[in-house]
Amino acid sequence: MPHKRKIDFSSLLSSVNSSRDSNNGTQSLNLTELPANILEAFIPGYSLILRYALDVFGFDISIVLSIGLIIFAFVTSVQYLWDKAYTGFSTFCMSSVYIDDSDDLFNSVLEWIAAQRMSKISRSVKAVTYRGSAWEEANEDDHDGGEVLDEAGIFNFSKWAARVPPRYEPYYGRHRFWFQGKMFIFDRSRRAASSSQYQYGRPSDEELIELTCVGRSTKPIRDLLDYVKIWSLDKEKALTVIRRPVNKERSRYGGVWSRVSSRPSRPMETVVLEPEQKARVLTDINEYLHPSSPRWYANRGIPYRRGYLFHGPPGTGKTSLSFALAGIFGLEIYVISLLEPTLTEADLSNLFNSLPRRCIVLLEDIDTAGLVRDEKSDESSSRSKAEKSKSNTKDGDNENSEDGKEERFTLHDLAKAMKSSNRRERTSDDVRQGISLSGLLNAIDGVATHEGRVLVMTTNHPEKLDDALIRPGRVDMQVQFGLATRVQTRELFVRMYSSDKDKIPERKTTLSSPTPLRHTTSNLPNGTSKPSVSASSTSATLLDNITSPSDLQAIADRFAESLPEETFSPAEIQGFLLTRKKEPQRALREVEVWRDGLLEAKERRRKVFGVQ
Ligand SMILES: Nc1ncnc2c1ncn2[C@@H]1O[C@H](COP(=O)(O)OP(=O)(O)OP(=O)(O)O)[C@@H](O)[C@H]1O
User: Fold this and answer.
1) What is the pTM of this model?
2) Who has greater pLDDT, 50 or 76?
3) In what ranges is there compositional bias, type Polar residues (predicted)?
4) What's the complex ipTM?
């Protein structure tokens, strides 16, 4: 029989036992004495409980406690040793890459991880409510609203949204996963927010992802990140990312960009413009963005920047073309409103200096921004503007009316004028304090860090702009947008009644226009490359008793003939068609009534505002 071995805890318990008399004169303890001595020190009356349990149940709980204590000590020391060994191993034999939550990669990695098996089988995941954009929710042809329509056939958005499952991503902590035969560790952690970081009025914690792999090189992780970037790009390749300056109420620091959304890239052919007009802009930007251009500019000492001024009445496609350009060239679009009251010149300069290598910066409604020079230069610039305004009237078009003072009025003009005057009343003082003309010019000219960007400024009133703002070098090409011509009206009609599956034939567009463009003036000679913009054949959707695509074309012709040339903006025509979006025949029937009503309303407003 093996002899039961006594454990010598004498040194451990010497302090506890110092007051205790030893009956047999030895310091050795048995298992029952061990917890009694220790627990006695922590739990007053423990020996009484022990004796009571022994008397009543005849069971010595000290044995269980002793064994428990030994197991606990064993596990703790193994864990301690393991941690030490792991720390040593990871220090010398593992590599890590950290990704901050302010980086785009953070979301890409999270999304990729969420799509992996590891997130599906993990027992510790974070559920994130899916907040997709409207366009992600359904296709146009998903007509079976079945369960989300109420008895009256009304679409209920809450019901619809409730059907979208949440996204599951790994929770904070370490998670292992395999990629291309290698093991990686994904560690997501959170750092307490500093007082400067606010989101929705409360401090927002910062998050960090650590990707680790075995080996002394980060190459496998870099490969993984390359893969994730391409995965993410493939997913988003049809999207245009839109960024705006971070709202100062959310962050103490101004002059920082944040991603507001991404939306499907606007196909160039959905912007109805003169093909030559599009071609000229496309060719110019295409040449500018070519990888060999920076060297070309550098060799000639020219700052590598390109600026465009899109001007014309409201609703004629200036913003639409900017987004379509971003889509076609795969650029992100950075939108700045100079009317933002909290925007300072320092912020503006930071924003420009933190632009990526290639992007489109969109400065909208630049004329309403209340940019001012000192009074002297104001006078001289207004003189020069008056002269320019006169010369513009020579161009005719829809720019100015007979007396050369006011523009032709449209509903959009009216809305815009009211909006602008409100804005001016509300913000002119703020803006004067915030952004001056020289502040904007400094930001645009800036240091070399934002070379490579495409600057697009839009305005309804180019004649109000200071010459300094639109001089060559700051604005290299001006593009004038006009009210809808008959051809454009026709195109808008056909596009409206064709489904996504159908391709609309675009009027032939190549990137280099052989004929000079009436509406476009370029300050620099144009490019050489001539990639072509696709023009495909079509069939239109059959709607509203239209039996063939040629019927649609015929109706479109009649529709276009019903509207006077260059009187309505594409936005106005689109607005009319949208309210009859599945009924081309009805649109044709009702267009004359709409036309007369709108002309009358414009006339009335013209009289009220005393505009010719
Ligand atoms: N040339 C066009 N081709 C296709 N759609 C157009 C065109 N012009 C305007 N639209 C439509 O009208 C709406 C407004 O257009 P957009 O915002 O591009 O006009 P804008 O000229 O930038 O106006 P604003 O000067 O008021 O900012 C958009 O929904 C757009 O689809």
Assistant:
1) 0.63
2) 76
3) 510-527
4) 0.98
